[in-house]
User: What shape does this take?
Amino acid sequence: MSARLTAAAGLMLLAIAGVAGAADRPPAVPPIAAGLKPVADFTAIRDRKARSIALFEEVGKVLQHPRCLNCHPRTDRPTQTDAMRPHMPLVVRADTGMGAPGLRCQTCHHDRNFDAAGVPGNPKWQLAPAEMAWAGKSLGEICAQIKDKTRNGGRAMPELIHHMAKDELVGWGWQPGAGRSPAPGSQAAFGALFEAWAKSGAYCPAPGAVQAR
Assistant: This one.
């Protein structure tokens, strides 16, 4: 079956399944600003810890955007759209993060977006591991999680910087295809902010801190 027909079949499944009931939906995500401040805007903050936290709060505009949260869900079921509705048809993470046997992510998602059917795609398309779940957590909690090698894929800080700035699946967040709002700014701007945060001490907001939108 061709990629176009497979993607179209996926869209048909969406139509058959319908929209999830209100009780199954997570809270709507508030609108987020379209841009990111450049690193230079934070140099006037003299206190190193305060500057570091401010940088991570800017980074959080991306981390807490639906383009990231949909693939870092709080359950084994991904979410979709800017409203973060439960994925339809029903799919689950499974052990590999690539779906259960018989309904792998690649059944519908291919190496690029297929806008005619509204199906997103990327060569690395899959869910983040369960230990990297971010949805429903505060920005401070996400920050601590990112720094914890037992919950970030075993990455040291240089590897995290490279992942955020260069990874192509992360980069998909700025090229999500028709009908989806891209993550704020650009991957280059996001990567620069993340690196500046790391070099300023990688301080985290308080655990209960919520990103202002």
